[in-house]
Every structure is written in C-alpha cells, then in structure tokens.
Sequence to fold (333 residues):
Amino acid sequence: MVKKCVGRSIFVVCALLVVGAMADTIQLKDNAAVTGTVLAEKRDQVAVDIGYTVLVIPKNQIVKISKGISSALKSVSQAKPPADPDPHADGPLLLENKPGFYSGAGKLAATRTVRDLVNQLGEAVVQVRTPSGLGSGFIINEDGFLITNFHVIEGETQISVEVYHQTGGELERKSYKQIRIIAINKFGDLALLKIEDKDAPKFKYVLLGSADALSVGEGVFAIGSPMGLERTVTEGILSTKTRQMAGELFLQTTTQINPGNSGGPLFNLRGEVVGITNMKITFGEGLGFAIPVESVKYFLDHREAFAYSNDNPSNAYRYLEPPSRTRKAAIEE
Fold:
C-alpha cells in the first residue's frame, strides 16, 4: 500500500512495504518513514529505490537513515584499494566520477580559495587562436578534447591552441597547430575541438559541475584571455541563473568578462566548471553572462548529432540530396 503524507511545507510519498532486514529505513519528520534501498546521498537530497520507482527526498525532511544489511554488504563488496593520484593534484577535487568522455564531481568537494584552485586548474584552461582573433577554452579529458564558443572559431579552419604545461614547478607555454573541429552547435554557441599534434602529451582537464546546484550570491571565478592577456583570473558572484536572452537562459555574474574570455570556463569554489563565459553588456560593469554547463553536457552527450562536416562548415547539419525527380525538375526549370 502507498500512503501520501502531506507536511507543512513539503509533499512526501511514504511507502509502507513488507520488507526484511535487508532494506534501508529513512525516518522522516511527522513520524513518517520510507523503506527501500538508498541509491545516492547528496548534499541536499537522498535518492531511494522503493521497488517500483525512485524517490528523491530533501535532507531537511530526514531525521535518521538506518542502513540495512544489503547496503552494508554493498559497501564492503565495492571497497577497493586506493586509486592512483588524480592528474589535477591532491585535495577534495580528487572525488570524481568518470562517465566516459568527460568527468564530473562524484561527491561534494569542499570549497577552496581561488588562489589554490587557480594553481590546480590553470593548465586545463587554454587560449584558442584563429587568423581573425582569439578566445579561450578548456580541456575536458586527457586526450586533448576541448570546449570553446562557436563564435570564437566561426568561419575558421586554421586554429591553434596555446597550453601552459607545468614542468618542474614552472609553466612552459606550448602551441599546438593540429586542431580538428569535432562538433559545433551554432545556435548554442558551442564548439568541440581536439588537439591532434603528434607530440601532444596527456592533458590536464577540468571537472564539469552543475549550474542547477548553484545559489544566487555564490562565489564564482573565470580564467581566460581577455584582450589577449592569457591566464587572467577574475572573481565575482552569481547574480542570477535564469537570465533570459534571445530565448535562452544564461547565468549572469559580476565576474569581469571581456573580449578574449569567450569560450573560457566559469568555475564554482569547488573547482568545477558551471558555465562557459560568452558575452557581456558593453555599456555596463559587472554584467557578464555564461552558458550553463548543463547545455555543455547535452552537447557532449549528443556530439554525434552536431558532428562537423567539411561539406557544410557553417552549421552542424548536413542536408541530403533531393530525390532524383525533384532534382531533374529543378534543372529543367
């Protein structure tokens, strides 16, 4: 039987199931309880599998979580020896989840100072150059795939990327010339590139976070090349995360953004990318905008649909030849 329990400020579904000692029990306020298997615990919510569906319960409604035998056995069976050090360096940013093409934070990392994070993340932020200008970008995996804005490379195929490698405690500037355009989304202002130089090493990369988890007023910072001044760091706060412009929602920030910052990362204070800086209001101060990282993840997850084609370089779509009858009629006309 399923019973709906209505509290003062939240609607909670409580499952009353006949289960053994192997299930987890989540004790809620108002003497309600949920019995099932805890799938994930996050900072502000817990996901519970109750058999026929998965409930997401806010933590401020949970009094106590009692782990069953199954969860205990699962924790023991999944225990592994310590992994090799992460290429980003030591610290809370080691907690990461690797779904494949890009990486995200697997657990909630502790906040850190901008100074500490810049030293750790600087190698993964790059400068993107074309004959007509320059912008910024960031590497998303060790194989040299990187993200930037579409408008940074629009109409260009001759692209170079400047990377600062840290060697022996010093930064060494390296320019890579063999850059391939993998995918583009003109309307989302996103481009996926790949460094293909033969002498390219394994690259340091960033973690993709969540713009949805940001709060207004939360500290953020950007790294980029405004006006060609590479490795420039600017700091601010999130002004709003629902600013509508041209039918799209953007993150608005007081972080200073200037020409050359386009395509660069906007970080939270846990060192995760939460947006891509791409524009500002030129006649105001502290009015910068960034594409939410959720749009970037969607673009990467469906990159085959946005695959770049030399036959149609102006957008992400390839048009098929018309049927022969239609083509013949067009010729005759």
Notes: Residues 114 and 269 are 7 Å apart (CA to CA). The first strand starts at residue 2 and ends at 6.
